Amino acid sequence: MLVLVAPGQGAQTPGFLAPWLELPGLADQLAAWSEVAGLDLIAYGTTADADEIRDTAVAQPLLVAAALASAQALGAEPDLLAGHSVGELATAALAGVITPEQALALVRERGQAMARAAAVTRTGMTAVLGGVEADVLAALAKHGLTPANINGAGQIVAGGTLEQLAAFKEEAPARARLIALSVAGAFHTEHMAPAVADMRAAASAISPSDPEVKLLSNADGQLVTSGTDLMERLVAQVSAPVRWDACMATMAELGVTKMIELLPGGTLTGLAKRGLKGVETVALKTPDDLDAARELIK
């Protein structure tokens, strides 16, 4: 069983789209999507620096466009789809729930709304690697932090104010390593609540179809069979934790044997190597990875 996965914010790096523009038709497709997103996706994916693409309003449309473009280049027919955070909008389009253009229009509103919410209070996110999960969760609760991403494979991402994160760092859980993430705010926490209404308003203009491919939700890792249900989940997910651990658990239950991570790949296949033992993986980083991905499909 093949699953295609789409990464979330933080996976982008300067210039990551550049080699992909050599593929036939891809530059034209990105130019068309740039019109929908209201951003020059080609410039942001090739010449922009790390600070420019760290901007939430830029990063989110860029990631969705990159995932969709690489999926188009790959041409695979997966058995299952799953996206991490904003990656869910890409997989919603790949599953036929919404069109790619609707995904780009929706992610434009999502990114802008979350950027506005992030500007209200100085917040951030810290990855917690290792430690005993119960101890980590208790420490987060003590400092008023939210486990914004429970990624499995010994990784939890904490979200909250910079002051809360600093206090947490001073009392880090035993055997845990902390890494401050280069993000603009505490995504998937209560600090994103102001963005939910904006996201709901944008989503209300879309009439979704039911998924044509099995599709997992970040909310609880369960299969979603209704397009309407998925849209509500996408709205609520803005301020709710990402349960990638639950998504991987369902992948294991369904018998996933192969995973291809769409551009810019690496994060989710890394988690799979630790949390889905025995599953073969390929991460799409450059067009050179397409051959390996197609060989994996065979």
The CATH architecture category of the largest domain equals 3-Layer(aba) Sandwich
Major pleated sheet: 5 strands, parallel
Main β-sheet, spatial strand arrangement: 7-2-1-8-9
Question: Portion of residues in helices?
Answer: 40-55%
Report the β-strand fraction as a percent range: 15-25%
Query: Poorly predicted ranges (pLDDT <50, ≥5 residues)?
Result: none
Overview of the structural elements:
With 298 residues, the protein is an alpha/beta fold. It folds into 2 domains: 2-119 and 189-297, 3-Layer(aba) Sandwich (Malonyl-Coenzyme A Acyl Carrier Protein, domain 2), CATH 3.40.366; 120-180, Alpha-Beta Plaits, CATH 3.30.70. The chain has helices at 26-37, 41-46, 50-54, 56-74, 87-94, 100-120, 133-142, 162-170, 193-203, 227-236, 244-254, 267-275, 289-297; strands at residues 2-6, 80-83, 123-130, 146-152, 155-161, 176-180, 214-215, 258-261, 280-283. It has a 5-stranded parallel beta sheet, sandwiched between helices. It has a 4-stranded antiparallel beta sheet with strand order 4-5-3-6. The radius of gyration is 18 Å and the shape is globular. The mean pLDDT is 96.
List keywords for this structure.
four-stranded antiparallel beta sheet, alpha/beta, 298 residues, 13 helices, Alpha-Beta Plaits, five-stranded parallel beta sheet, 2 domains, 9 strands, globular, Malonyl-Coenzyme A Acyl Carrier Protein, domain 2
